[in-house]
Specification:
The protein is α+β, with helices and mostly antiparallel strands. It has one domain: Sulfite Oxidase, Chain A, domain 2 (Alpha-Beta Complex), CATH 3.90.420. Helices cover 15% and strands 20% of the residues. The chain is built from 9 helices and 12 strands. The strands form 2 sheets. Strands 3, 4, 7, 8, 9, 11 and 12 form a 7-stranded mixed beta sheet that branches. The chain has a 5-stranded mixed beta sheet with strand order 2-1-10-5-6. The longest helix has 8 residues. It is globular and about 50 Å long. 40% of the residues are buried.
Length: 327
């Protein structure tokens, strides 16, 4: 008997396509946005990184999460998992600065006694603490692609639970059509050195349609690489929406509200022509200032030397989510 394995869509090899030259232009927006009332001093995207930095320093303030089962439906993609040392020191977290090397600044994030308030149009409004969340909702590991709107990507082993489990617990009313997610913000703590934040629409807010949140792919992450989330990844709980660009994944969530209308969100408010509310990964729809046809896979060496891969529609998860957008 010959066994034939049919690859999932996200495992299919694809030919390389023409490169985009404006890979770093999102930084240029932040540097030139003074005319729009935004003051920012932005350092180079990689910043000054100490190559001798040890793994233990990058994961401080985290604890192991032993015996977490891996969901077999999300156990592999078409490339290796990104090495933790790269993923843990190459992060967007504008509350702590405008470069990718914000992991040191992010250690000032206070995560003790963390609570998440759930409200709005629900039958069971409540406030969870993070320990209750990790006990109430069974945790699993999922290996997901992560695609940034800036045209770089990773493969990440998240630990957490499907968002639909929280929906089941709080029971939204029939009037709930959208969900707003609000991140922690304290200007006395989260102002990154050399990066003026006062004119930006803080706190960071993101949103989904309730059907998107209820899709099995939508995930709350409370861990990564077998441990609780490091602060630079959005400890202690963040959104992971793998078919959308990464800015849709709000970090360090403190409030979730079910609403009857579409909420204003951070980047869509700031630059609506460039960052849509929907923000699904789409290689045929370029960003106004660069192509989205390909992506660079985060790894060792200078960013422009990273391996280039074709961008997949919905980041490779179309068979699970495309029906959400059929008209």
């Amino acid at each position: 008997m010959v066994l034939i394995r049919i690859l999932k869509s996200w495992e299919l090899p694809e030919r390389e396509v023409t490169s985009e030259t404006a890979f770093l232009n999102r930084r240029r927006f932040l540097k030139s946005a003074i005319a729009a009332g935004i003051g920012a001093t932005v350092l180079p995207i990689l910043g000054c990184q100490n190559q001798s930095q040890t793994k233990s320093e990058l994961i401080k303030n985290t604890v192991p999460l032993p015996d977490i089962p891996r969901n077999p439906n999300f156990a592999q993609v078409d490339r290796p998992v990104t090495k933790q040392i790269f993923a843990s020191r190459y992060n967007n977290f504008y509350e702590f600065g405008g470069t990718k090397s914000i992991w040191r600044n992010a250690q000032s994030l206070p995560t003790e006694n963390w609570k998440v308030e759930i409200g709005g149009l629900v039958k069971n409004p409540r406030t969870y603490d993070i320990d209750e969340i990790q006990k109430k909702f069974p945790l699993e590991e999922r290996i997901y692609r992560f695609r940034c709107v800036e045209a770089w990507s990773m493969v990440v082993p998240w630990i957490g639970f499907p968002m639909k489990r929280l929906i089941e617990d709080v029971e939204p009313t029939s009037a709930a059509k959208f969900v707003r997610f609000t991140s922690f913000y304290d200007p006395q703590i989260t102002t990154g050195p050399g990066f003026h934040l006062g004119s930006l629409p803080w706190p960071y807010v993101e949103g989904l349609r309730i059907e998107e949140m209820a899709n099995d792919q939508a995930f709350f992450a409370t861990g990564i690489y077998g441990r609780t989330l490091p602060k630079q990844h959005g400890a202690p709980i963040r959104m992971v929406i793998p078919w959308k660009y990464g800015f849709k994944g709000a970090k360090s969530i403190v409030k979730i509200e079910f609403l009857d209308r579409q909420p204003a969100t951070f980047w869509n408010t700031l630059v609506p022509k460039e960052y849509g509310f929907e923000a699904n990964v789409n290689p045929t729809k370029p960003h106004p200032r660069w192509s989205q046809a390909t992506e660079r896979v985060v790894g060792d060496g200078p960013a422009m030397s990273w391996e280039r891969k074709p961008t997949l529609p919905y980041n490779g998860y179309g068979e699970y989510v495309a029906q959400l957008y059929q008209t």
